[in-house]
Recover the amino acids of this structure.
C-alpha cells in the first residue's frame, strides 16, 4: 500500500459496525439451489410444518449470510457429510475460548449485505467488452481537445469536446446501477477473503485447511480493492466521471473474480462450513438438553424436547419395527409431539445431534402433512388440499424409504369417507416407509394396528406421558363448557353423542335424535 493510500485511510471514516443484515429466505436458499442442485430431501410443506424457518432463525444468531446458507443446505441434505462436521462442532462446543477466537475472525462476514453464491455458482460472468480498452484514452483525448480548441480557436474542435464529454457521461449512466450492485457483491467477496486470511493466520488446527491458499486469497482481495484515495471527498467524482475509474475497476474486478472462481468457491465452502459449525457449537453450549444421536434403523428418543418451546415438557418415544398411531385428548400436545419427533429426526440427519437425553435415529428423509387448509385464492378446498398432499406423499414414498409424519388426515370430508380414505393411504404409506400419524378417528387404530402401533398421549402429574394404547376418555364435549358454551349446548351435545354411540353399535331410525335437538 502506498504512503498516499495509508494517509487516505486515516482521513476516511472508520469501518461500519457489525449489523446483521435481514436476508430473505430466498437469498438464504440460493447457495443450496445453485451450488447443490437436487441435493435436498426436504420439501416446502415439510419445511413449514416442522417450523424450520423459526428453527433456522434460532441457529443463525450472530451468523452471517455464509453460515446461514450452509446451515440451510445441511438441513436439506441427506446427511452424508454430517460425521466430519460433528467432530468439529463437539470440539468447539467444549472450548469457549476457541469459539471466541474463531468467531472474532468471522465477524467481518456479518457486514455483508449481499448474497454472492449466485455470483460464484450461478451463471458465469460475462467477459469484459473489447471497448473497455479505450476508456483510459477518453479523458486524455478530452483534455487534449479542450487545449487545442482554446489554442487554435477552431470551432469544430468544440464539437469533438462535446462528443467526448457526452461519451464519458453515457458510459457512467449506462453502468451506474450495475456498478452499485457489483460494489455490494465485491465488498462481500472481500469480507470472505479477509476472513479466510484471518482464520488461516490463527494457530488453530480447525483452520489448517485454509492456510495453503491464504496468500492467494490475500492477493485476490488486494486486486478487488479500490484505492482508498478514491473515497476522499471530491476525489471520487473526479476520478469516476473524468477518468472512468469506477467503470474500469468494475470490469477489472469482474474479470478477476471470473479468473479466480475456483479459489473463491473453495473459500466459500470452507469458511461457510466453519461458521456454520461455530453457530451450532454456540447453540449447543447454551442448550443443556442435547445428545449426539446414534444411527439405527429403529427410532428411540428418551426425554426428548422441542427446542423452540420455552417450557417444553420432555417425552420418551420409541418405535420397534412399526409406525405409530397416536391418540390423545384435544389440546394434550399430539401435534407438538409430532413436530418434536420430526424436527429431531431432521436435526439428527443434518447435524448429528438431538434435543434429548438419548437418541437413536434412522438417517431417513422426513415428509409431513400438518397444515393443509382451504386455499381461497387457488380455489382449493381443504379436502382437495389434503388429497393433493396425500398424492405427493405417496409419490415420495416410491422414491426411497422415508418417515411420514401426518396430523389429522382427511378432515375435509364426511366421517365415513375420511376413515376409509385415511385407512387406504396410511396403510399404503406404511408399507413403503415409517408412518407416524395422529388422529381423532380412533377407529383407525384397530384397522391399522398391524402396521401402526397404537400410542396414547396423556397427562401424568405435572408432565406428559406417551404409552401404548388408544385414548379411552375423550374431552371434545367437555371443552364446550370449559370454553364458555351454555350448559344447554353441552347437554344437547351429550344426548347426540350417546345416541350416535348407540346407533353405531345398533343402527336404527334417526328420527329420535332429530326430536331430541
Amino acid at each position: 500500500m502506498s504512503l498516499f493510500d495509508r494517509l487516505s485511510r486515516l482521513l476516511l471514516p472508520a469501518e461500519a459496525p457489525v449489523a446483521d443484515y435481514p436476508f430473505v429466505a430466498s437469498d438464504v436458499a440460493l447457495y443450496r439451489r445453485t451450488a447443490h442442485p437436487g441435493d435436498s430431501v426436504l420439501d416446502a410443506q415439510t419445511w413449514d410444518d416442522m417450523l424450520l424457518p423459526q428453527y433456522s432463525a434460532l441457529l443463525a444468531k450472530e451468523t452471517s449470510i455464509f453460515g446461514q446458507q450452509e446451515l440451510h443446505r445441511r438441513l436439506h441434505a441427506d446427511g452424508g457429510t454430517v460425521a466430519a462436521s460433528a467432530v468439529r462442532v463437539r470440539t468447539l462446543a467444549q472450548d469457549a475460548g476457541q469459539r471466541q477466537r474463531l468467531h472474532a475472525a468471522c465477524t467481518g462476514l456479518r457486514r455483508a449485505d449481499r448474497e454472492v453464491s449466485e455470483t460464484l455458482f450461478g451463471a458465469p460472468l460475462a467477459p469484459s467488452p473489447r471497448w473497455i480498452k479505450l476508456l483510459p484514452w477518453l479523458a486524455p483525448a478530452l483534455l487534449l481537445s479542450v487545449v487545442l480548441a482554446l489554442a487554435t480557436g477552431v470551432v469544430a474542435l468544440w464539437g469533438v469536446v462535446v462528443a467526448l464529454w457526452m461519451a464519458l457521461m453515457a458510459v457512467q449512466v449506462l453502468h451506474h446501477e450495475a456498478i452499485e450492485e457489483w460494489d455490494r457483491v465485491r465488498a462481500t467477496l472481500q469480507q470472505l477473503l479477509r476472513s479466510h486470511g484471518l482464520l488461516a493466520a490463527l494457530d488453530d488446527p480447525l483452520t489448517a485447511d485454509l492456510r495453503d491458499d491464504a496468500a492467494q486469497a490475500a492477493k485476490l482481495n488486494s486486486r478487488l480493492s479500490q484505492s482508498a484515495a478514491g473515497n476522499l471527498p471530491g476525489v471520487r467524482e473526479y476520478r469516476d466521471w473524468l477518468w472512468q475509474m469506477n467503470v474500469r475497476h468494475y470490469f477489472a474486478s469482474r474479470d478477476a473474480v471470473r479468473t479466480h472462481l475456483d479459489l473463491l468457491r473453495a473459500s466459500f465452502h470452507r469458511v461457510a462450513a466453519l461458521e456454520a459449525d461455530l453457530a451450532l457449537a454456540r447453540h449447543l453450549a447454551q442448550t443443556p438438553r442435547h445428545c449426539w444421536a446414534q444411527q439405527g434403523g429403529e427410532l428411540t428418543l428418551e426425554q426428548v424436547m422441542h427446542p423452540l418451546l420455552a417450557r417444553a415438557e420432555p417425552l420418551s418415544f420409541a418405535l420397534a419395527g412399526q409406525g405409530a398411531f397416536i391418540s390423545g385428548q384435544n389440546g394434550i400436545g399430539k401435534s407438538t409431539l409430532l413436530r418434536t419427533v420430526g424436527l429431531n429426526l431432521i436435526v439428527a440427519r443434518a447435524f448429528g445431534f438431538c434435543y434429548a437425553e438419548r437418541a437413536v435415529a434412522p438417517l431417513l428423509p422426513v415428509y409431513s402433512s400438518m397444515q393443509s387448509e382451504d386455499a381461497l385464492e387457488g380455489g382449493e378446498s381443504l379436502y382437495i388440499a389434503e388429497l393433493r398432499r396425500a398424492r405427493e406423499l405417496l409419490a415420495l414414498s416410491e422414491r426411497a424409504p422415508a418417515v411420514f409424519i401426518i396430523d389429522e388426515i382427511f378432515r375435509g370430508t364426511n366421517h365415513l369417507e375420511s376413515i376409509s380414505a385415511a385407512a387406504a393411504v396410511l396403510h399404503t404409506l406404511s408399507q413403503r416407509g415409517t408412518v407416524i400419524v395422529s388422529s381423532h378417528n380412533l377407529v383407525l387404530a384397530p384397522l391399522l394396528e398391524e402396521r401402526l402401533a397404537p400410542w396414547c398421549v396423556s397427562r401424568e402429574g405435572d408432565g406428559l406421558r406417551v404409552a401404548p394404547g388408544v385414548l379411552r376418555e375423550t374431552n371434545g364435549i367437555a371443552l364446550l363448557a370449559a370454553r364458555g358454551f351454555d350448559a344447554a349446548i353441552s347437554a344437547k351435545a351429550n344426548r347426540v353423542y350417546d345416541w350416535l354411540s348407540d346407533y353405531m353399535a345398533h343402527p336404527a331410525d334417526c328420527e329420535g335424535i332429530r326430536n331430541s335437538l
Confidence is low (pLDDT under 50) at residues 7-13, 513-517. Residues 294 and 360 are 5 Å apart (CA to CA). The chain is about 55% helix and 10% strand.
